[in-house]
Amino acid sequence: MSQASFQGVLAPVLTPFRPDYEINSEAFLTHCRWLLDQGADGLAVFGTTSEANSLGLDERVDLLDYLIDNGITPDRLMPGTGTCALTDTVRLTRHAVDHGCGGVLVLPPFYYKGVSDDGLYASYAEIIERVGSDALKLYLYHIPPIAQVGISLDLIGRLLATYPDTIAGLKDSSGDWKNTLAILNEYPELATFCGSERFLLDTLRNGGAGTITASGNVNPAGIKKVYDNWEGAEAESLQAGITKLRVCFEGRPLLSALKAIAADFYSDSNWSIMRPPLRALENDDARAIVKELAEMGFRMGDTDRNA
Amino acid sequence: MSQASFQGVLAPVLTPFRPDYEINSEAFLTHCRWLLDQGADGLAVFGTTSEANSLGLDERVDLLDYLIDNGITPDRLMPGTGTCALTDTVRLTRHAVDHGCGGVLVLPPFYYKGVSDDGLYASYAEIIERVGSDALKLYLYHIPPIAQVGISLDLIGRLLATYPDTIAGLKDSSGDWKNTLAILNEYPELATFCGSERFLLDTLRNGGAGTITASGNVNPAGIKKVYDNWEGAEAESLQAGITKLRVCFEGRPLLSALKAIAADFYSDSNWSIMRPPLRALENDDARAIVKELAEMGFRMGDTDRNA
Questions:
Q1: A-chain residues near B120 (CB < 8 A)
Q2: N or C terminus: fewer CB in 10 A for chain A?
Q3: What is the ipTM, given to two decimal places?
Q4: Searching chain A, which residue's CA lies closest to the CA of residue B123?
Q5: 0.90 exceeded by the pTM?
Q6: Burial letters for B13-38: b for 16+ Cβ neighbours within 10 Å, e otherwise?
């Protein structure tokens, strides 16, 4: 894991839109800066939470250029670059590597279902060979509840054996702690991130690298405090606090709920807009979650209270 | 259905690759011409069978340009243009419309699962509004076994009500005849295509437009004969013949099997190559299916025997 380019708490950054569903780049940049100010160790832009799969290729390229042109340090960026199509994934991955991004988070090709490990191995191998750069640090993205196509323990091992200097880590969004633990035990050289902060303390205690988590968009400081204190006496109670919040988010459509919270924080109702096919919460539901969280003592950006 | 731009038998054209997984455009053009010569009523290029979801955006644009530059009549083309991302789908759809393609076959955005009909309605509406052309003839693509995200009866009705001149038809690849029949009964104005020729006669008898079927790549003339004779005395036995063949194809990984048959027909072993994550059949399996079909009296391109 000493070779890994990231550890700690990363946020898959929410992507704000304008009423015409175009990306609001300025608001995105503001949010990226806020996350880093709050202690996020990295920005996993263009993740599932970012609605990245609803963004076009050119939009992703332009938005990454924009962030870097405006001073976001590339080594803090782990853009999602995995698409259904080999050539598109290569294009996005090469673009990120050319910018000096610290890593890329790569979904398996996810349109065709029931594909073999041989086919997925060939996919990742072809991406790596075509990009052909020692600077490529590839993080595997395992999220079977959404992508349906997952990354097996065996596939991880095969890829690590062939590309030990390129396969840097993995994000496990299976929601299955047994799977995360198996990866941690079998591949300690991999920087393994849990996909929900519910598992952060357990991940760290078993040698993991941290978490890349949707709710890192609204509670980065609180989650970071668990990371910073995982060996301390307060670790369990800090973990209990962030788990309680996460459960509250999960009671709603998670992405829409997070955007509703951001809209409240930034005092910008447009922040709640989601690009089709996803939908914003109804106003009443948005107000309800902000109120419920406030009653739990949580307010986005209120670091002293949350962390 | 009189407004529909297509009817009959369409093939979702297989895409041949070179050993380095690049598209073999010349071989693709040859196959397109062969299909039309064999009586295919249209070419649904860039379908699921075409491995289109493994093709990059630029590759799809370039390949459509190439076909049309080389004399394939645009009004015979129904390219697949649906991707996960609104802006990419708009780009591909606009490109097809600008070329005068007879229609486009549009998957719903398929990354995010469990999305609402409201969200899917907004997706299709936004595509139609952004393309903004009376020339757009949009065919909805319902293939829940692979895309997971499907198109409900209610969604079809809502889209037809708002865009009666644009929503031209639908391909039902659910494999569920009850669903196809419900669409045929509820929306007779829609040009409904079954996604497998197993249902061709039933589709036609219930007012449907025809079939867009993977095996149309290897048996277009045989399937066309059912279409041409569906009201004749031989209809049932012709249907039984193409059903028997289809069942044989389905005993294998369908796409790989079809490419193995094409490799034999074109005497070009590279025709069997599939782009990752899909995989070619092993040589023994490829030989076995060609042999088994020959024993059933089928040989690709042997129109007299097959049809």
A1: 276-277
A2: N
A3: 0.96
A4: A276
A5: yes
A6: bbbbbeeebebbbebbbebbebbbeb
